[in-house]
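[job 4471] stage=fold_predict status=RUNNING
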Amino acid sequence: MPMRPDPDTLAWASAAVRHLARTTNLLIAARRFRIIGGDPRDAAALDALLTALGARAAAADERIDHLWCLGTPEQSATAVQSAIAVPAADQPRGHTLVVIDAGRHQPAVDEDAFGPVTPVRPGVLGVPMTSDDVSLVSTGREPEDDPAAEARLRWARRAMPVSRAVAAELRDQGLLRGTRIGVAMVLEPKTAVLSLLLREAGAEVVVYAHADETDDAVAAVLRRTGLPVFADSSATLDEQKALALAMLDTRPHVLLDDGAHVIRLAHQERPDLLPTMVGAAEETTSGLTALRVLADRGQLGIPVVAVNDARTKTFFDNRYGTGQSTVFAVLDLVDALPSGTHTVRPGGSAVVVGYGHVGEGVALVLRALGFHVTVAETDPVRALQARFAGHAVAPLIEAVRDADLVMSATGVADTITVEVLRACAADAVVAVAGGVDQEIAIDAALATGAERVVVGRKAERFTFPGAEHGVLVLDDGGCINITAAEGNPIEIMDLSFAVQLGAVRMLLERGDELDRAVVPVDPAVDDATARAALAAFGSRAEPPVPVAAQPADRQPDVRTTRFGAPA
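[job 4471] inference complete, writing structure tokens
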């Protein structure tokens, strides 16, 4: 049995992997990696962590996505030359080799050895030395404090081959001409790329985003391209509502929403718009929950495609994307806090509240990073799933008493109640991966007399009257990967946005036939998205098995032959 790495080595490996993710906004899972040089114990710890996160060590004849350099600059230069010599047939178009200088004590890559380098995005250098791009990232150097929005959009577009391909089909078919599409999502580089792809495919596009989900630099880039953008990170609640209504007053035919807030606002304050709309698509579990209630009451006025429920969305975005991005964002914030502020550490304990697809991903990533994970889940079947996955299972009020870190992944308000906050261990960190208002009952806590004190960036200590200790709440209980980081990895949102584009196709081709209800994504959209993604990752799926055609008037034989020829 391999030995567990010591806490310092585990902390170093965790920080290195998180630095790569933070700097590039790229996915760790599904990528092929190679580790070059360094202390064998460091290499083993890094290998184990990457593998636990869903990456795979590349075989000798395979292309590499991530080349981790731990040894000498000479070893690294040789490894890069070897990596780019893989036959072109195994190189999907647009593939980027990311070379990571992860030297633990001194640089492992000599950037000057590769010729001229150019900034690709903050913290990433491009090496225009071959027909395939090579990018350099150094874990020992923090990225520049520069929004560099145009560069981040170019980087995101390059890593979104599936969405690009679907948008190109829509453009070639002319399906979007004359259609106005409202994009009401987190406004960051990937969503900006989606908006531009829709316009390039022939649609008129208008954009809205909530204040806490707006990257002003990205909004400025879209405005410079001519897109109407109704978003401002400093907008008050009333101003946000005015911006959302202004976007609706452009009378979009299709809404792409994240949380269903704008869809619901249209029903509440612009009902005259609904008869002119083709429909909408919703990205989130919490948004669909509200829309299904509306539909059950007979109050949903348009068909809404359940993008969140598509297999190529839920199985990947919710689990691998949100798992990586939320946990990494939390630990990045925690690492920046003053020493002694908290108790979070490698090998410590963590509680995951809720074991849906998001909870599964959060628990997977926490365990990969060395945490002992306990799951609190009210659904007994999901709790049993957590137990079968190797996690401890306990009631929430009991689980938090010894936890260093508590992450809510339910998308349900008041999941972390005042009682739970009071029961948390001293200096425990509490954060949200689900993303609805008051998932942590902050207003209720303040109403009981809790005091809040800022202890660091996006971190506050809550202390209750009569209590001897406090708990740390991150980013006011906001959805941490959005409000404190750059959202889900680019490759994950490429899948989700390809499904969004498929939903747009569904609405434009069959919107008149769809019920005024929450409707599922066509299974063909999932299949096409998955096959395109497999190709982008350098893999191929088995071809579909043809189903023998049956005469229309022939029913299948339901008699059993298990006991011989049927009479």
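[job 4471] summary: The two ends are 59 Å apart (CA to CA).
[job 4471] exit 0
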